[in-house]
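Q: Protein A?
A:
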Amino acid sequence: MKTSRVGRPKGENVDNANRRRKQLIDAAIQSIVEHGLSATTLATVAKASGLSQGTAVFYFKNKQTLLYEAFRSRLDDYRKTWTDTLSEVGPDPVDRIATLVFASMDSKLLTQQDMAFWNSFWPAASRQANLNEIYEQFDDERQAVLLSLCEDAKKHMEKTAWTPKTVAQTLETIVEGVWIRLYYSSSHMSAKDARIVAGTLLSTMFPGRAGDIMKMAKNPVNDN
């Protein structure tokens, strides 16, 4: 399913149009968190944004287009988090792998609001082609980066049963599992706990770097 083209009312200032679109996208995210995906409508979004429903229609035409842009916005935010973090790390592949994993477990990304939003997104993405497409693009990009780093770090896996492919697949699985676990069982695991679990696993993959990895796990930039 294709979405309608996102535009702006004729003659409106571009900066103002961008502000209005962001206002509506933020309101859509708020509505999804509060009401769920199926109960979110242009009316609930308009109410949350403080704008009229007619204004929402001007910018997004229909609910499907607005939801698409809301999900794309959050994926872009998530991408920026891990790409910015990687840009601040040196060339060592093990450091970069650990940084990428721990960036996905940053407490800024693991709020209950974010978890509620993503819990609505994943089932919808499996049913709606346009949402699945943008998620697959994002996922393919991230997995390609991780696999490339694992290939570069292959020498650090010597004398272990790990391979670059199994390391990449396992790390992706644990990150996704942590997000689900924190949403459904937050009383049993915190973002801090999740980083320790991930750090312990990474230490079995790169035993010669266990000390550095656990130090990174225990000293995040942000914490709950």
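Q: Protein B?
A:
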Amino acid sequence: MTDSKRQIVVLGGGGFSMEPDNLALDVYILKQARWSSPLVCFIATASGDADGYVVRFYGAFSKLDCRPSHLALFRRTPDLRNFLLRQDVIYVSGGNTKSMLAVWRDWGLPDILREAWETGIVLAGISAGAICWFDVGITDSWAGRLVPISCLGFLPGTCCPHYDGEAERRPALHDLISRRAVPTALALEDGAAAHFVGTELLRVVTSRPEARAYRVQVQEDRSTETEIPVEQLARHPV
């Protein structure tokens, strides 16, 4: 059990949806919860509540020491505040960030998620589910281009996932940073996860030996990239 504190764990890529044979990042998230065998809610709004994604979540998390559930917003929806504030971990999927945020805002979910965070429920997510917590995220929600999108603002700055997994990510982010179109960015490669306590970065952990994380910012009107130290987790096979 950990003390009640505001925690967010963001995955640039990896976890059960990308590394089904190594759940090291997912286990790390569970270990940050206040209790053993935590209640874990999966929110797959960004994928349109895709059945296959939800099934993969249950297939992975049913093998871990937790009690999994999911929240559907495209079917009959429960009392959101009552349901979410009972959780210990809220884990958000990848997908279309713009569509996810639009649906969340219509349901009043941002205020509930902030309350959950402030009461010690661990927030986590991959890709869209990672960038959504920042001031700004780099998204491919629009076909054919990467653009910044205003997000929830729980964490300061910009976040860019899949930094090594998609060839256009690095040059697009450097262009945006050099033009001062977005604030200083956290760039996460696939297999890297950043753990925030409050709004401060505590550590970056990885499920792959080659996974890296970077701080990308403007210095003397140029974008610069500084590597952030990482800690590799022990492999956790299914």
